[in-house]
Write a structure and sequence with these properties.
The chain is an alpha+beta fold. It is built from three helices and six strands; from the N terminus they run ββββααββα.
Length: 135
């Protein structure tokens, strides 16, 4: 699990600085924000199906035996339903990546889960590129 690091980010008319890396504003051709979904929905679907099968098995077992041995299947169904919910909530996470393109390369300069932070940073760099940023 990655630990969030706080880096000092500044943008002025000459440089965009991301911690110890600096990018010359006059060398940046394009600024791009890409959205990435780091967690897929597969785990939620699989756990949900397992929970459903266990729950239906518990109902069928309870009807056939008078309810005596259905408890274990119900507990398993609840556990897998909880795992399905947890996996589903992780699919809502979005990662916003700021890319700076120059004539020679494309560099991922910054990544955050905060869309507004990345969009404001992009706007600041674009303003510096057209000379509208003071400092």
């Amino acid at each position: 699990m990655a630990v969030a690091q706080t880096i000092n980010i500044t943008v002025d008319k000459d440089f965009a600085r991301f911690g110890s890396k600096s990018y010359a504003i006059n060398k940046i051709n394009t600024v791009e924000v890409r959205v990435r979904q780091p967690h897929g929905i597969g785990g939620a679907v699989i756990c949900g199906i397992i929970a459903l099968v266990l729950f239906l098995g518990a109902i069928g077992n309870g009807l056939n035996t008078g309810g005596g041995s259905a408890g274990t299947s119900i507990v398993g169904a609840v556990i897998f339903a909880a795992l399905a919910y947890w996996s589903w909530t992780r699919t809502k996470i979005r990662e916003y990546q700021l890319f700076l393109m120059t004539s020679s390369s494309s560099t991922q300069a910054y990544t955050s889960n905060d869309e507004y932070e990345v969009m404001n940073l992009r706007d600041s760099i674009e303003s510096a590129m057209v000379g509208k940023l003071d400092s």
